[in-house]
Design a protein that fits this description.
CATH architecture of the largest domain: 3-Layer(aba) Sandwich
CATH topology of the largest domain: Rossmann fold
Distance between the termini: 62 Å
Helix content: 25-40%
Largest sheet: 6 strands, mixed
CATH class of the largest domain: Alpha Beta
Number of strands: 19
Radius of gyration: 24 Å
Length: 605
């Protein structure tokens, strides 16, 4: 039952909803007992650029008794047209209604997509609240970085997968093979006994009289007091036959995950803490995967994906070998380190691979960069960009943050001064004014990081810092963009919230909030009203320093990083002390030495 043509003719980019793409997997619906809808709560172009989706899609469709199909959040025009025509949300592959699937699995990669999850369930004609669903409805599961603090979405999700999903998902599906004989409640209890599965309905949450979170405790013997993050020991095989979109997507190229995890220890970075330890894909596997991607998909560009691509062992040899084997293939290297080796590496690529360079100094002073453990001295940064300009680059993008712990207005002024020095280096090296794109994000205190307890800066102070940047960076060739403080406030609230936020999310959605990450659709008034009518305050969650002894709503999620290590890192930050990268220095005893053999061996050695 595909969407009718008269409906698709009303919307922009109808190919978002038609399916039929090259390499898509269409299995026999009637002959496949377990049916899963892999759901990404944003538009097709963004979801199809997510590197986790094709991994799970391939893994599940390789199982003979499992069918996995894709679905993305319909854009506003499509959602309106579907509602008016009373047509349910359909999967791409077989065009079946989502309500007919056994499982709907959401990827929670960004907190500002949470209202889209609710809207997709509503469009699918599935009750939004978990308590209103019964055995006849699909089981709603979720994973991704949002599962590291699942509490804000606990009212809507039946179970969360915490950590790497490649192993635990197959273990979970064993529970579904006899679901019809057991019923949903027993299914959830059996699932809760699997390490790394969290079933919110099997836990009781308590709060103190002053509103502070007190505890979360299991109410069933199958439910564990702590949920360990699942970590695969080695990376699964690279996906070399992914679905090829009909329309241009955000990352319109092949992708090979060459490395998972990062050991640099930037204190603000949730991914850096929660994807540890580092696991590399063997070089020969990367080279083979690149050739298969070209053959299977027709791509002429491949991205080597990692949190810190230049930290991959032998990255220069890998790039050389790829260029030798596939001379017509363009390579994309995201996440470059700020040093001359990155520039030399990019300079060694074929001319068609030499796109604009992006670096992330994050802060405007050496002092603040040391505080956040991104200790890149200014002279190294300037040396790096000077080399880049001398080798022919004329455009750079630089990422900064404002509102970092201990930041002063002098540090913000330091961003202006640093950009001016970069601009001067470009003029001197090339005789031309370089094109600089300066992106300034607001610091968001994230769970499971060194800064998980700090307060987010208030809007008035952030606006003052933005004004310093606007006034100081009115220069030829400089383009400045920055985050809306209200949007950043909401992200911080949803990042560090507890289960009570479920009613806020639900109410904001009822008031019309969807696509909150999109500037043209973000409506802060909806959220302000939702908080007020729910009896909660955004500042309570975002702009309040949390004492070291205050229980945290996500403390039952065990990432493998110890609370003592996070407290030590916070203390080191306040003392402006660097923590060296453990890949090239002694083990820092972050907690993984108790769970990961390589870490344990290094600490013991």
């Amino acid at each position: 039952m595909p969407y009718p043509d008269n409906l698709l003719s009303q919307v922009t980019k109808p190919a978002r909803y038609t399916g039929g793409e090259w390499n898509s997997a269409v299995k026999d619906w009637a002959a496949t007992p377990i049916r899963i809808a892999l759901s990404y709560p944003d538009v097709y172009e963004i979801g199809m650029s997510n590197i986790a989706l094709p991994v799970l899609y391939d893994l599940l469709n390789r199982q003979p008794d499992i069918l996995a199909e894709r679905v993305f959040a319909p854009w506003v025009d499509m959602a309106t047209a579907m509602s008016a025509a009373v047509i349910p949300l359909l999967s791409l592959e077989s065009q079946h209604p989502l309500k007919d699937f056994d499982i709907i699995g959401f990827s929670l990669g960004y907190e500002l997509t949470y209202t889209n999850v609710l809207n997709m369930l509503h469009l699918a004609q599935v009750p939004v609240l978990a308590t209103e669903r019964n055995d006849a409805h699909p089981v709603i599961i979720a994973g991704g970085s949002g599962a590291l603090n699942p509490e804000p979405m606990a009212d809507f999700i039946d179970l969360f997968v915490v950590g790497d999903g490649e192993e635990v998902l197959l273990e979970l599906l064993d529970c579904f093979r006899d679901r019809k004989e057991r019923g949903k409640n027993e299914l959830l209890r059996r699932a809760a006994a699997i390490p790394s599965i969290y079933v919110p309905s099997l836990y009781r949450v308590t709060y103190d009289a002053d509103g502070l979170f007190r505890s979360i405790t299991p109410t069933a013997p199958e439910a564990s007091p702590r949920i360990p993050r699942r970590m695969v020991t080695s990376l699964p095989p690279s996906i070399t036959c992914p679905v090829v979109p009909f329309i241009e997507v955000v990352h319109d190229r092949g992708a090979i995950e060459i490395q998972r995890g990062c050991s640099r220890g930037c204190r603000f970075c949730q991914a850096g803490f929660t994807y540890r330890p580092v696991r590399e894909r063997p070089k020969e596997e990367v080279v083979r995967a690149a050739g298969e991607l070209v053959a299977n998909c027709g791509y002429d560009e491949v991205s080597l994906v990692s949190l810190s691509t230049c930290d991959y062992t032998g990255i220069d040899q890998l790039v050389t070998e790829l260029a030798h084997h596939y001379p017509n293939l363009a390579l994309s290297l995201p996440s470059l380190r700020i040093d001359n080796s990155s520039v030399k590496l990019m300079g060694s690529l074929p001319a068609r691979s030499r796109t604009g360079l992006t670096f992330a100094p994050e802060a405007g002073s050496d002092r603040l960069r040391q505080t956040i453990n991104k200790n890149v001295p200014e002279d190294i940064l300037l040396e790096t960009v000077t080399t880049a300009f001398a080798q022919g680059w004329h455009a750079l993008k630089l990422y900064f943050m404002v509102g970092l712990p201990t930041e002063t207005f002098d540090d913000v002024e330091g961003i202006v001064q640093l950009v001016e020095k970069v601009r001067a280096a470009g003029r001197q090296a090339s005789g031309k004014t370089p094109q600089l794109r300066i992106s300034v994000a607001t610091f968001i205190p994230k769970p499971h990081t060194s800064f998980q307890r700090v307060a987010q800066e208030n809007e008035a102070s952030l606006n003052a810092k933005h004004e310093i940047l606007r006034a100081g960076l009115r220069r030829k060739g400089v383009r400045l963009s920055w985050s809306d403080p209200k949007l950043s406030l909401l992200e911080a609230v949803l990042s560090r919230g507890d289960r009570r936020l479920g009613k806020v999310i639900h109410h904001a959605w009822q008031l019309g909030s969807t696509f909150d990450a999109w500037d043209e659709h973000f409506n802060y008034e909806n959220w302000r009203r939702a908080f007020t009518e729910s009896g909660l305050e955004p500042d309570f969650y975002a702009r309040r320093e949390r004492p070291p002894d205050e229980p945290l709503p996500w403390s039952h999620i065990d990432t493998g990083i110890s609370a003592d290590f996070l407290k030590r890192e916070h203390r080191q930050a306040m003392e402006n002390t660097e923590t060296p990268d453990c890949r090239h220095n002694p083990c820092q005893a972050c907690g993984l030495e108790g769970r990961h053999l390589v870490c344990r061996q290094k600490l013991g050695g």
